[in-house]
Design a protein that fits this description.
The protein is mainly alpha-helical. 62% of the residues lie in helices and 3% in strands. It has a three-stranded mixed beta sheet, sandwiched between helices. Helix 1 packs across helix 3 and helix 9 packs parallel to helix 10. It is globular, with a radius of gyration of 23 Å.
Length: 516
């Protein structure tokens, strides 16, 4: 006879299989599906996702949870069985509030919206996407009302990505960060650049022209995939393809896929995208296999997930030790583009700070301003203070206010991100939450691996990956993001570690000295 926990696992496993099958179809939609398949794919995804939802919210799930809860009692927060009951109960109670018909309708609408977004972006025509976005906003508000919230509907949507976090808390964290971030951006903009006859204290020119030379796609792919393998990404349990917007998706711990997009005249676009998505994939590949086919077999939150991507992309791949190891190999791969370049010039180029139009290609310092802009706009879409029709104009005005640059096209503006076509309202804040979390984790990592820079300079990423696997990856969703961070670092989330990191790194690059 099975135990109550075994019965619960047996019930949940095929539900997870349905969700994984839907994820495979969604991955194919972004990579290989012909445009003509959009309508059929929308129906297929709707069927799979609504069926999985109906099975999950059934009375049988509730009964199995009750029996399992009685069996496990009060156990350690990291106990597999107790965690499974606790997390599944939280998901179950939330999901029960959303009608299966709404799940099906939202699934079909997002599938169509993604195709419309692709067309709109290609044709630089927001009007192609606008009616789809209006429908997604309407359905998302309906979903928020069904779930319920204390203060504003955005809370219910944010909860899906960051359990336990409120909109007001995000706004407060962002406000605190912005107080120090804007002066840093201004100080960098005002820093004197070294020119003939200038002060010897002036910063060396951070020119990124060498990144804008000819970089053939196949060579970018070969170099990037070698780096991914070195970092620890297992290509026997994953693959990389091309999509309009880079992403990572997981069907199991043994099938975690990433995508990128290439620009043959701008090296960082694909290279840092690969490493960013590789950070997500390393997390998924590192989850304890015992948690597979259960609600625990995912990242703790989207913010924690993003912390892994930002940690590898920025703290590792934009560091001097990293390029001490890889720059000779990169120069060998692209002799025409980099034959006359030095390590120091390349390091400065990949860390240049300059307000820009595209979030995924933004530097570390201004990146968070892109996120804050999107958070404010989508919060307005959900509470009704921003209409879809005025979104392009509001976007451009916010870009001017936050970054001092305005896009010439909607393709480089309001249409540049895929998230709204997926109805992922509440997702954008996780990028900055992840950035802050990465810096906080890195302070602890550097204290516990004091020779980390030497390992990176040798191309030895094992100690770092092992640390992350032990302290973050293997736990899956057993702990919420706040509980995980407190357990690992001993502190609640704070902007201070990232601000210290940014001040140290960019203060040295731009010779800022002490800032008030």
């Amino acid at each position: 006879m099975n135990t109550p926990i075994e019965d619960l696992r047996a019930h949940l496993a095929p539900i997870d299989d349905l969700e994984s099958a839907a994820a495979v179809l969604a991955w194919d939609q972004e990579t290989f599906m012909p445009d003509g398949g959009a309508e059929a794919r929308a129906r297929q995804l709707s069927t799979l996702q609504s069926t999985a939802h109906e099975r999950f919210v059934s009375d049988e799930t509730g009964e199995l949870l009750d029996r399992a809860a009685e069996a496990v009692g009060d156990a350690d927060p990291l106990d597999d069985d107790a965690s499974l009951v606790r997390v599944t109960r939280r998901d179950y109670e939330r999901a029960r509030r959303v009608p299966s018909s709404l799940v099906a309708t939202l699934s079909e609408a997002t599938s169509r919206a993604k195709q419309a977004w692709k067309k709109a972006r290609t044709e630089d025509d927001f009007s192609v996407f606008a009616p789809h976005l209006e429908r997604l906003v309407e359905l998302s508000v309906e979903k928020a009302e069904a779930i319920g919230y204390d203060d504003e509907p955005y809370d219910a949507l944010l909860e899906e990505f960051e359990p336990g976090l409120t909109t007001a808390e995000v706004a407060d964290t962002f406000g605190t960060l912005r107080e120090d971030l804007v002066p840093l951006v201004d100080a960098i903009a005002d820093a004197p650049r070294a020119e003939r006859g200038s002060s010897p204290r002036a910063a060396p020119a951070l020119d990124d022209d060498l990144l804008r030379r000819s970089y053939p796609q196949q060579k970018q792919k070969a170099f990037g995939e070698q780096v991914l393998a070195d970092l620890g990404y297992d290509f026997d349990r994953g693959r990389q393809d091309v999509s309009a917007h880079p992403f990572t998706t997981s069907f199991s711990v043994d099938d975690v896929r990433i995508t990128t997009r290439y620009d043959e005249e701008y090296l960082p676009s694909a290279l840092f995208s690969m490493i960013h998505e590789g950070g997500h994939a390393l997390y998924e590949q590192g989850i304890d296999p015992a948690l597979d086919r259960t609600p625990l077999g995912e990242g703790a939150s989207l913010g924690v997930h993003e912390s892994q991507a930002r940690l590898w992309e920025n703290h590792v791949a934009r560091s001097r030790p990293f390029w001490r190891h890889y720059f000779p190999q990169l120069r060998d791969a692209f002799p025409d583009a980099l034959g006359d370049a030095s390590l120091d010039a390349f390091y400065r180029a990949v860390n240049r700070v300059e307000p820009s139009l595209i979030r995924v290609e933004a530097d570390e310092v201004t990146y968070n301003l892109h996120v804050m802009l999107r958070f404010e706009l989508e919060r307005g879409l959900i509470d009704g203070t921003v209409s879809v029709d005025e979104l392009p104009a509001r976007w451009n005005a916010a870009m001017d206010d936050y970054l001092g640059v305005v896009p010439d096209t909607d393709a480089d503006g309001v249409l540049q991100d895929v998230h709204w076509s997926m109805a992922s309202f509440g997702y954008f804040p996780t990028y900055t939450l992840g950035t802050l979390t990465a810096a906080q984790l890195m302070e602890t990592i550097e204290a516990e691996i004091p020779n980390l820079d030497a390992h990176l300079a040798d191309g030895d990423f094992g100690p770092l990956l092992d640390w992350l696997r032990t302290h973050v990856h293997r736990h899956g969703r057993k702990l919420t993001a706040p509980a995980l961070l407190e357990r690992v670092t001993g502190e609640a989330l704070s902007a201070d570690p990232w601000l210290r990191y940014a001040d140290n790194k960019f203060g040295a690059l731009y010779r800022l000295g002490e800032r008030a």
